[in-house]
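Troubleshooting log. The previous structure file for this entry was overwritten by mistake, so regenerating from the original sequence record. Sequence copied from the archived sheet and checked twice against the printout by T.R.
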Amino acid sequence: MPVPAPGLFLPRGVTDDESCVMARALFASAMKRLLLTTAAVFLSLAARAAEFTVEETKTGGAVVKVDGQVFAEYVVDQANKPYLWPIYGPTGKSMTRAYPMKDVPGEKQDHPHHRGLNFGHESIGGYDTWAEKATFGTNPKTSERLKHLGAIKHRSYKELKGGGSGVIHALSDYVDQEGKVIITEDRKMTFKVEGDTRVIDVDIDLIASQGNVVVDDKKDSGLSIRVPHSMSVDAKEGGKIINSNGDTDAAAWGKRAAWCDFHGPVEGEHLGIAMLNHPASFRHPTPWHARTYGLFTANPFGLSQLKIQAESGALELKKEERIKLRHRFIFHKGDEKAAKIAEAFEAYVKEAK
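Regenerated output below.
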């Protein structure tokens, strides 16, 4: 079959050179549409990639999985307070110290009450949920503290939900040594994957359900996570603390800040944990009880003991009054700049809490 001569089917007045330009333009347009379609498909697949399941365990806790792999476990039966452990970050590495739940060679084994991610307070209604019996060992000087040791007892779940995010919504009672309820805690933990980070929102309400109660000014109080030992500053492997004001390491202790970040090496990778303090949270911006040995705590309670002010920060909640604590944990790669923690905080503050 004869091949048409160049220009045979060209519109009137269009030359062969012009037809080449038109063909190239049409080809470029087609490729652009193909690339955009392909990108949209990949973005759609990425958006559907994180599928959460949340199931109650045989011991009454709950395990959160993302795409079939454990993200975190809520443990309610191993101490005098519930806690999250283990917690796995964006690269699959464990993002808390294992002790005292597990004996790992090389870990610093101090403060056995620093369990994973937890909340505790040294004195609400005169009872201590920060420490536990193992904290004091056999030291007779601690007998008075032992008399005031309380507990946070898991009562029930309001919600356990999977899907595009995971939710553990739990009710707990703070009790004295006789089991008498002092206050009620309403804690909602939301687990998400955002880009190459993993996120846990911890929203806690402390409710004076039983009547007026004093929440004391104590250094050892607040929402805490004990970071992997290798990430701690004292391990001298490259760990660093930095807050939103630029205070670093030991200088960050007792400072008010909108967020704080702890980053360093974990099993051959440089990883980090940021804790953001939402403006709706009690006494925002919170003071930080962040220690170079690896304790990382947002503590809005200990205003005098953290040397924020001379006068006590103790307060009395009236019956049914509540304290709202709103925080976001971001488990990330690299340091706070690589993870864009400042930008993440700006997005967080726009959310209603």
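Residues 1-10, 41-47 have pLDDT under 50 and may be disordered. Archived copy saved in two places this time.
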